[in-house]
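Fresh eyes needed here. I'd like your take on this protein's tokenised backbone:
***
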Amino acid sequence: MKHLPKHLQPRWRYLAVSIETWPDAGIGRRAFQRELWYAGQNLLGDPGSADADLRLMRFEVAGGSGGAIVRVRRGEVDAARAAIACVDEVNGHPVGLRTAGVSGSVDACSESYLGDPAPSSTQREVAFDGADRPARRRDGAVDVDAQTGWVGATVHDTE
């Protein structure tokens, strides 16, 4: 089978997506890809989802934060961004997604927008709700391990 000539090959754009969730959330690559497909299909319908062709190229989540690179057809970037914005949970764990940028290659996308997808986090005890509780601090955000689950806070809330 012959390859298509270069002018007939599909053109791709790569979206850098920042991911934020609770530190103990078990989010895997396959589950995230499945949620992308469902969001694209629910928002854009079958033809729109097929046109966008959302494909996960890279996925890394550790300690509640990370990044992903999503491949999309060149003319469907806006539709893909809307579909990504519709993803609010993966495997029953809430996630926050933010499209950091769009690039023409995986390497440029990774270098320009993701950098280190898993920023360092420190664990310590904080005074929260009248008791000392374990917490993780990363980039100005604090995730406190309360009895009912994780609570998002800022550094100023724990001082």
